[in-house]
């Protein structure tokens, strides 16, 4: 299993506080060639409305972290499409990253280009600050 991000448990607590049920952590999806592990699966209304969440702290180089996150999301979408699954994938980022690289042109353009939906959370308060679904411009 891949190592959990520093904020993994914080995002789990924030999702639960927001009314989500955590249906899986370190969730594995397997194709004929590869397997991927997505940080969190959560649901509402007795298992319906399932989302997948990738947690990234953006504590090292913001550009490097952005590149890794975008690449992972692209791979996740590919594998899910191969498995004919249509779960939305959200990228959970701390408020500081949202106010940092995601408020800059590079972060905004990458979110547009990779159709990224953001879940912005407060590490201190362990709560979700904002859900930003991808919207085509």
Description:
There is one protein chain. This protein has 137 residues and is α/β, with parallel strands linked by helices. The protein has one domain: 3-Layer(aba) Sandwich (Trna Endonuclease, Chain: A, domain 1), CATH 3.40.1350.10. Helices cover 33% and strands 34% of the residues. It has four helices and six strands. It has helices at residues 8-17, 62-82, 95-99, 105-113; strands at residues 21-30, 35-44, 48-55, 89-94, 117-122, 127-132. Strands 1-2-3-4-5-6 form a six-stranded mixed β-sheet, with helices on both faces.
- How many domain modules? 1
Mean pLDDT: 93
Quick one: biggest sheet?
6 strands, mixed
CATH topology (level 3) name:
Trna Endonuclease, Chain: A, domain 1
Question: Low-confidence parts, pLDDT < 50 over ≥5 residues?
Answer: none
**Gyration radius, rounded:** 14 Å
Helix coverage percent: 25-40%
SSE arrangement, N to C = HEEEHEHHEE
> What is the architecture at the second tier of CATH?
3-Layer(aba) Sandwich
Strand content: 25-35%
Which geometry do the CA atoms define? globular
DSSP summary, beta strand count = 6
How many helices? 4
CATH structural class: Alpha Beta
The order of strands across the largest sheet is: 1-2-3-4-5-6
**How far is the N terminus from the C terminus?**
37 Å
- Structural class computed from helices and strand pairing: alpha/beta
Keywords:
single chain, 137 residues, alpha/beta, Trna Endonuclease, Chain: A, domain 1, 6-stranded mixed β-sheet, 4 helices, 34% strand
Summarize the structure.
The protein has helices spanning 8-17, 62-82, 95-99, 105-113; strands at residues 21-30, 35-44, 48-55, 89-94, 117-122, 127-132. By secondary structure, it is of the alpha/beta class. A six-stranded mixed beta sheet has the order 1-2-3-4-5-6, sandwiched between helices.
